[in-house]
Specification:
By secondary structure, the chain is an all-alpha fold. It has 17 helices and no strands.
Length: about 450
Amino acid sequence: MEKSDGEGIREMEKNTVYKENIGIQDRLGMMFSGANITLFIVIAAFLTYFYTDVVGLNPGVIGTVLLVSKVFDGISDLVLGNIVDRTRTAKGVCRPWVFRIAVFFGLGIVMLFTVPDVGNAGKVAYLFIVYNVSQTLIYTISSLAVQSLPTYITRNPAQQRELYAWNNVGCGILSTLVSGITIQLVTRLGGDQKAWVLVAFGYAVITSLFLLLTGMLCKERVNPDELTNSEEKVSFWKALKAICQNKYWFLVLGIVIVGAGVYATSMQMHTYYAKYVLGDVNIAGALNSAYVAPTLILGILLVPISRYISAKRIILIGVSLQLLGCIMIIAAPANIKILTVATIFKGVSQCCGTGMFLAMLGQAIEYGQWKTGVRSQAMMVAANGAGQKIGNGVITAVLGFIMSAIGYSGTQEVQSAATMSGISGIYLYIPLVLTILQIVFVLMYDLDKKYDTIVRELQERA
């Protein structure tokens, strides 16, 4: 008879000995680490709109810049992930990087909007430089440190899921605020570039402070050298080879890429769809809030739920609701109430995905050590982030190319009928296709059934 998720999780924890025990300070620290999402939200939801409608650049040019930048971004993930893995200090492996990057994180947000008046070519060059500094360097280091931190706090899978759930709570709070009030704040402050800079500065102060609190409150208890019976630092190429032999890393990567694609498409197109198809740009704020609000509410509920239900099942439930939401949007594309409910369903999926895919990646880390003998926690997270960013960059670039091909221009108050139809097509159908792919990847993941045996064998080896 097949065991339920709760029975399987409890039996695994009973038969597997874990030395670590998280405290309230770790939970609070991981909640504050949700500040890391701010830069991602700013870029995913508002950067393209800002550079087309405020700065005046062509969306195709912006897409090209972001696509080229994602190649550098992906490479930086791998290189910096290996550097983080090789870090050994009295504070641990990840915490030193959280402290180091906190102030620069806020600077990265502000730089994106302080575009000088140097002509279109100069503005494109500026976008390329500041995007790569803020995203390729600053955000990459911050994400690696924050997302790898729970695997250095504890090896207990239930405790890891709980820490990631607390991170999801923090992400939900800031996602709701940033997505829901940014356009309104900018409008009240005048709607020009100065208004965007002022709003960005406010976000910068908050996020830098929260990341400093993360570094102060969390405590690393897992010594990677003890787990491998060696103090040898794994080389970049050895770690990369081990990752390429990990089939579950590829599955998690697929889940993340298509999920990020749904998120990027929805968040970017909310503003365009609201402004030109629905006739009111302020509706975008309501849709953004509907998308991220479930992260705040469900993020809290995932803390107890994750103790009894596997990460795979949680994500599968969320993606199923996302599919329903996509169908509802296609069925009633101009009904604001239905659009809002459907967007909430998509937001539930986003919350389940961001809250649990890292727990699945944590399982893939143990599988990788079991299969290859190589343990590279931060680089595993980095490799996943690299694939996610490159995939997300491709999707963002494709959106830019499509917007350019359908004749969109941010300097025009009225768009052509073909442009309006193209905006609708992007918003309605691309998320549906990506959702179907995501369901396929989730169904292929079966590591949760093997995980308890793998951990016990690793303990016997050690």
